[in-house]
Amino acid sequence: MANELFIPSTIDASLATSIADYSKTATDNVYNSNVVLKILNERKRLINGGVSVVYTLIKSDQNNGGFYLGATQLNTTQSDAETLVEFRWQNLYEPIQLTRDEERINSGDEHKIIDLVGEKVQRAELAVSKRAEQAMSTPTANANNLADLETMVNTGTFGTIAGGTDTFWQATVTTSGSFAAQGLTDLATAEYAVASSATSDNVTIHITNKTNFQRFEATRLPLERISNGNLTANAGFKNLTFKGTPVVYGNFIGSGLWFGLNMNYVDYNVDSETDFAMTPFMMPVNQTAKVAFILHRTTGPVTNNRRRQFKLQSITA
Predict the structure, then answer these.
(1) For the chain, what is the HEC assignment?
(2) CA dist 167 to 45, 155, 157, 164, 305, Å?
(3) Which of 1, 201, 302, 311 could lock 153 by a disulfide, CB 3.0 to 4.6 Å apart?
(4) pLDDT tens digits for 101-122?
(5) What is the reported pTM?
(6) Nearest by Cα to 296 from 132, 160, 153, 161
(7) Residue 150 is part of a domain; what is its CATH number?
(8) Would 71 be classed as within a structural domain?
(9) How far apart are the C-alpha atoms of 311 and 138, rounded to whole Å?
(10) Which range of residues forms the domain containing residue 159?
């Protein structure tokens, strides 16, 4: 009897079954829980570990060729137009705890244990998705290596390159003001600034906060309909459009901010074995409880072309 606590039981089998079942849907549940993670999920790259993720960047246009006739001597040199940027991994987690008391209270019915674990998993999923959404939206304490939208769409250091020194590594940042007076004009100007032409490298999505979304909604014609196109059809998120591009809002986008993103140049790197993965239940040596974890390892949202992104800041009414 003294070793009862450590003998595998039907409860342990139920816990293992529960984790196996919930693991199949946990990743989808987290990604579909908010608009920021859903958007990033569409640009997810699964990477098998490593110390960091490195991108090769084109920092300037090449212009070494020209025109020739006959035996004209041709230039054989090529300018150095490439550089590297590195992004480090960051980990986040959420615990799922089951105490010894909870085990014994529910030990008489396998379904009680499964339901209890299911409720705890659901709470953990909501918590980790909220933590991830906040950290992907704005700089967050202790997430030292994690990239976020506010830092990505800016002019300072991002990854291992200082935008203040290498001006090619800068997004377009506009200090706006009254949305009613100049918001739409500033949006249009910023869109034209980051596009390479009328048909290519245009912004693919706008992300702002609820306050700015409501300000934008107030500028629309009475017949403007809220859309739930391809971006949000399966998740229930509502969006408007600006120049045919979806406009959505996140829960943690900073006050007065509006991002115009070209998602063709944005990646969400995730460790292939740690994509909101659930661990088995384990018992710490100093607690009468079992704990499992939801784990996520990512660089956060990163880009290989900051110049195609823009941000409006200091937006007011």
Answers:
(1) CCCHHHCCCHHHHHHHHHHHHHHHHHHHHHHCCCHHHHHHHCCEEEECCCCEEEEEEECCCCCCCCCCCCCCCCCCCCCCCEEEEEEECEEEEEEEEEEHHHHHHCCCCHHHHHHHHHHHHHHHHHHHHHHHHHHHHCCCCCCCCCCCHHHHCCCCEECCEECCCCHHHCCEEEECCEHHHHHHHHHHHHHHHHCCCCCCCCCCEEEECHHHHHHHHHHCCCCCCCECCCCCCCCCCCEEEECCEEEEECCCCCCCCEEEECHHHEEEEEEEEEEEEECCCECCCCCCEEEEEEEEEEEEEEECCHHHCEEEECCEC
(2) 27, 8, 11, 6, 12
(3) 311
(4) 887 777 766 677 778 888 889 9
(5) 0.86
(6) 132
(7) 3.90.1690
(8) no
(9) 13
(10) 9-59+83-313
**How many folded domains does the chain comprise?**
1
Q: Among 18-22, 133-137, 287-291, where is mean pLDDT lowest?
A: 18-22
| Residue 70 placed within a domain | no
